[in-house]
Amino acid sequence: MSRVVGVYGASGCGRGILPLLRASHGTGETRFLFIDDGCAVDTVNETPVIRWDEFLSRPESDKLVAIAVANSHVRERLANKCSDGGITLTGARAASVVEMDDVAIGEGALLSPFVTLTSNIRIGKCFHANLYSYVEHDCVIGDFVTFAPRVSCNGNVRIEDHAYIGTGAVIRQGTPEKPLVIGKGAVVGMGAVVTKDVPAGTTVVGNPARPLIKG
């Protein structure tokens, strides 16, 4: 069976994900491409860049797509586009990822090198976990959540859909009776230390993290 794997997004995130896909899917008869409707070049890192309509019209019988786009709302839109086109989402996982007991991950997750997922974790679709991030025990993470590099998500934390956790942020451990909650669409700034719940749609920064006051 012939197969083509498309990485949606030819910029930085996609360029880091393509080697992981090559390693996990093997080469053989599998072709690898970037899909990017706005890219001004035909190749990136010796890999062809094509438009979505070109991808749909390719002759391979098996088409897979990994969505390597940082903006979570764009990721959701592209995931819906794949679903509408009958295209299967695929994930990518570095060989150095550590996954322990009872971890369930939705489709389309991209797990960069040295990510650790410990135990009793539930993660939604199209999760992005960048370099050296970890998720500790008894956490629940929604759909289209993004972890920048070195995020420390400690135990009994609930992160709702479309939240963004910035580089080096630390999320304090909650309890089974009262998990610490990062609300839907919230943003945790780079290096922030989150010690209490973050309301939906709120940006927090600093140590301890507090809502960002715009001047």
Automatic annotation (TrEMBL):
Transmembrane segments: none
Single GO term (MF): transferase activity
Residue ranges constituting the PglD N-terminal domain according to the UniProt record: 7-81
Highest rank taxon of the organism: Bacteria
Catalytic residues as annotated in Swiss-Prot or TrEMBL: H137
Residues annotated as site: Increases basicity of active site His: D138
Any Pfam family the entry gives: Hexapep_2
Gene3D superfamilies per record: 3.40.50.20, Hexapeptide repeat proteins
Keyword tags: Transferase
Record-linked InterPro entries: AcTrfase_PglD-like, Hexapep, PglD_N, Trans_hexapeptide_repeat, Trimer_LpxA-like_sf
NCBIfam families with a match to the protein in the record: NeuD_NnaD
Family note: Belongs to the transferase hexapeptide repeat family.
Name of the featured protein: Acetyltransferase
Organism: Sphingomonas edaphi
